[in-house]
């Protein structure tokens, strides 16, 4: 696959190296002369010097035949516009944009730049995962496909502790796909009995979180934890 | 008319003063508090005394845009010193806040042209300078009676 990576910072450089190792054809575009010279010593002809905000720089890098453009500069406006131009002007099939400031994410969405990746958001997700007090953890959001996967930890006071999976009144548009118990995961059958301490994974249509929280959480009146 | 100008440099501040003098309501947003001083150049009263508004912040901050009054703006001018910033914030003004008139200053002629085709009202000072220079050179050549190709024949 022919991939253009914009920005030869730590992220872009390492990304390019990994992609080259996987035998992809890669061009990295870097606008800082010193940075370019450093990276060029290793990546040689796979890196070009220029400001990828400028259309002729993108064209010189062969954007017309690129199948994927990844914008990972430290500047959110640059990442947004490079991806917008790649998709809308050059009809590049796939784009990935880095979000530096998570507060800019709505702007990426507004300009139709998806998917976008934010390290800050990823760390926050991990934090949620490590701190189960949050109750329900989003593992994966597939916005285009209108699906998400969530994880919940069953507390002692959960109303489904001790219940058979076959007896659960799962809301429409949701499916229990896996149970993690004592560090091991398995696909539950109708006869699986849920225990306190189980982490359950469910796939669901967006907007079903509250129904699931109610089903798996403590009976009304309890606190939300767990 | 209520005009919001983001980026209060030489261009932005000058447009802001003119529009205020012409009787419009003008609000300026700039990340540099010092740019307020530039606004008042040539004015005999303070910017606020004349009815102008000034907010410190960037055009990417929703809070700053709202504080500067984008929700009630009839016109939005993006005149920061960054092309990319101007293109992004004018699209935000257009799509999210549905400001009726949105104008973006874009120095790069190629991008100005493409975004113009996408429905953005762009002003490209570089394009204007190129056109003026080309006209000036042609006029000079005509005055001297030279025609294209003269220099080749001479060689």
Task: Give the SSE map.
The complex is a heterodimer of chains A (226) and B (155).
Chain A (H helix, E strand, L loop, with lengths): L1 E5 L3 H12 L3 E6 L2 H11 L3 E3 L5 H6 L7 E4 L4 H13 L5 E6 L5 H6 L5 E3 H12 L5 E7 L4 E7 L20 E8 L2 E3 L12 E6 L4 H8 L10
Parallel strand pairs in A: 1-2, 1-4, 2-3, 4-5, 5-6
Antiparallel strand pairs in A: 7-8, 8-11, 9-10, 9-11
Chain B lengths: L1 E5 L3 H12 L3 E6 L4 H5 L13 E4 L5 H6 L7 E4 L4 H13 L5 E5 L3 H9 L3 E3 L1 H19 L6 H5 L1
Parallel strand pairs in B: 1-2, 1-4, 2-3, 4-5, 5-6
Provide structural commentary.
The complex is a heterodimer of chains A (226) and B (155). By secondary structure, chain A is of the alpha/beta class. Chain A folds into 2 domains: 2-119, NAD(P)-binding Rossmann-like Domain (Rossmann fold); 126-216, Alpha-Beta Plaits. Helix content of chain A is 30%, strand content 26%. Chain A contains 7 helices and 11 strands. Chain A has helices at residues 10-21, 33-43, 55-60, 76-88, 105-110, 119-130, 209-216, and strands at residues 2-6, 25-30, 47-49, 68-71, 94-99, 116-118, 136-142, 147-153, 174-181, 184-186, 199-204. The relative contact order of chain A is 0.10. Chain B has 155 residues and is α/β, with parallel strands linked by helices. Chain B has 2 domains: 2-123, 3-Layer(aba) Sandwich (Rossmann fold), CATH 3.40.50; 126-155, no CATH class. Chain B contains 7 helices and 6 strands. Chain B has a 6-stranded parallel β-sheet with strand order 3-2-1-4-5-6, sandwiched between helices. Chain B is globular, with a radius of gyration of 20 Å. The model of chain B has no long low-confidence stretch (mean pLDDT 93). The interface between A and B is medium-sized, with 19 and 18 residues.
Total number of domains of chain A: 2
Named CATH architecture of the largest domain in chain B: 3-Layer(aba) Sandwich
Shape of chain B: globular
Number of helices of chain B: 7
Secondary-structure element pattern of chain B, one letter each: EHEHEHEHEHEHH
Number of helices of chain A: 7
């Amino acid at each position: 696959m022919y991939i253009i990576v914009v920005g030869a910072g730590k992220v872009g450089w390492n990304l390019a190296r990994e992609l080259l190792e996987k035998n992809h054809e890669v061009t990295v575009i870097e606008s800082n002369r010193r940075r370019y010279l450093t990276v060029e010593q290793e990546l040689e002809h796979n890196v070009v010097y220029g400001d990828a905000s400028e259309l002729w720089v993108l064209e010189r890098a062969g954007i017309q035949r690129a199948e994927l453009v990844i914008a990972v500069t430290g500047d959110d406006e640059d990442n947004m516009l490079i991806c917008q131009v790649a998709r809308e002007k050059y009809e590049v099939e796939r784009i990935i944009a880095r979000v530096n400031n998570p507060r800019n994410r709505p702007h990426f969405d507004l300009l139709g730049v998806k998917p976008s990746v934010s390290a800050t958001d990823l760390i926050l997700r991990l934090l949620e995962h490590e701190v189960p007090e949050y109750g329900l953890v989003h593992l994966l959001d597939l916005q285009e496909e209108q699906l998400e996967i969530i994880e919940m930890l069953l507390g002692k006071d959960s109303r489904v502790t001790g219940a058979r999976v076959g007896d659960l009144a799962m809301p429409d548009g949701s499916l229990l796909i896996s149970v993690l118990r004592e560090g091991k995961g398995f696909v539950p059958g109708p006869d699986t009995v849920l225990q306190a301490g189980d982490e359950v994974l469910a796939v669901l249509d967006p907007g079903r979180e509250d129904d699931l929280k109610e089903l798996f959480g403590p009976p009304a009146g309890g606190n939300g934890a767990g | 008319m209520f005009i919001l100008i983001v980026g209060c440099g030489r261009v932005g501040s000058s447009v802001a003063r003119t529009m205020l003098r012409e009787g419009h309501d003008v609000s300026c947003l700039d990340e540099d508090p010092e740019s307020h001083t530039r606004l008042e150049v040539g004015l005999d009263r303070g910017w606020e005394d004349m009815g102008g508004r000034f907010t410190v912040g960037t055009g990417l901050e929703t809070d700053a845009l709202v504080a500067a009054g984008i929700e009630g703006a009839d016109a939005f001018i993006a005149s920061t010193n960054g092309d990319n910033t101007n293109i992004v914030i004018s699209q935000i003004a257009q799509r999210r806040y549905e400001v009726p008139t949105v104008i973006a200053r874009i120095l790069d002629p190629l991008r100005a042209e493409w975004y113009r085709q996408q429905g953005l009202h762009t002003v490209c000072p570089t394009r204007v300078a190129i056109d003026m220079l080309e006209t000036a050179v042609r006029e000079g050549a005509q005055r001297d009676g030279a025609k294209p190709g003269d220099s080749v024949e001479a060689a």
